[in-house]
Amino acid sequence: MRSDDESGFLARTIAAEDGLKLHVRDYAGDETITKARTPVFCLPGLTRNSRDFHQLALLLSQDPAAPRRVITLDARGRGASEWDKDKSRYNLIVEGQDVLTVCAALGIHQAIFIGTSRGGLVLHMLAASGRDILRAVILNDIGPVLEKIGLADIRDYLNRDKKPANWDEAIEILRENHGGAFGALDEEDWQDMARAIYAFRDGKPVADYDPAIAAQMQALDLEAPIPDLWPQFQVFQDIPLMVIRGENSKLLTQMTTDEMARRHPEMAIKIARGQGHAPILHLGDVLDAIRHFISKF
Length: 297
Description:
Structural class: alpha/beta
């Protein structure tokens, strides 16, 4: 993120199958150059939005050597997309269909998909559906096994639901929730994170998502078994795959990452040092790893 986080892209509104309006950022770059390369499509986490990917999208779309089109999506109920009146439709199947609808509207037949956390779960669903739209996939701190300790962390900070009165308080809340896992972040990074997560409304920062989305996680029963997605993950065997794991992540363990690599021997792995769940993708040497991976497509 940076102070000019509202530039460098075209803002588009695309209607989902049920008519709900979805907000898309299209970092098209110079289309005479980028059309020769596979575009990148970014999907954010549970309560996050397209602003999470702004710096990454700028760096990839304006890369001097190999610029490419980057699409970032506000999933329904997040960011500038409309909130769904039917809260049951905040689910992976509907959100996966929204991705396909956006791709069709933008004339994207295949893309390199980056899925952070819940965005990566959506990609598991798309892979299992047999769609050939996945040219390659980058899973950002997510896999087929969701650790209960990581889910508890997410549930607990959503339950705290502190309301900042200003940007300084917003940053302090983020430090309180995530500071222990994100030693790699400097002051500017924390400011960027706050502006990605919060929108400024009525003179103060507010969390930029439908509260019904957080309510689903807040009501999660961690005493019940958490189903894994190994059957869906198996489909990735035929798709070039990279996983990025936060060094301090509690949601994606090294054990699960190792098992993913055993089942997908060609899978690339990148550890985001000094970061937790979920890594910021333009920091440190993570960006170089992403560039290297996508350069093949």
